[in-house]
Amino acid sequence: MPLRDKVLQEIVSTEETYLKKLHILDKFFVKPCLEKGLLPEDIHIAIFGELAALQHMNEELYNALVSESENVGAAFLHLAPFLKVYSSYAKNYQKSINLLLEWERRSDKLRSWITGTESRPEVQAKLPSLLITPVQRVPRYRLLLGELLKHTPNDHPHFSSIAKAVEEVGEVAEHINRSISKAENLQRMLMIQRAFKRGHPSIIAPGRHLLKEGILHK
Length: 218
Known about the structure:
Oligomer: single chain
Shape: elongated
Radius of gyration: 19 Å
Distance between the termini: 56 Å
Strand content: under 5%
Order of helices and strands: HHHHHHHH
Structural class: mainly alpha
Number of strands: 0
């Protein structure tokens, strides 16, 4: 299979995988958490509020990728203005995780429910790992589109639309990239925090980040 076709295939297949993760978030965490009243409504919105818009947007993108066939650039350009929702999500990610951790400490019921849901056969993923996937997705788009452009001849009918898509997606990705290292660092701190019994001691605090981890010899 030519390299260009492989990249096109990867764009569609990874989008399908990403959508499945968003669906898992919605079906097993977002909706049940609201229905069970495990979080106050305003806190629920602060943590999960932007996910519905992201899911709807990416369903549109996936349908466009499938219907546009090889004209991937056109599919991305159609939704490029809405990718700014990702910037907002990335910006609020740290606040959302802090809120989630705070309410896990407050509520044994919430903490137990999240742990149980994470271990379900249909889920098999940690909630923070699912929540960080949108932060990572747009930079991935930029890499895939850049690779597609590299394997598209200048005289190809879709070259200009792909080049424009690389430019527009790249602008959003630049903003998000600045948030990723902080988000991944926070995710690792959260994993360590959740390993402590009943959330004590608390290592999460504004401005604090993980410098190093390893085995401590006493």
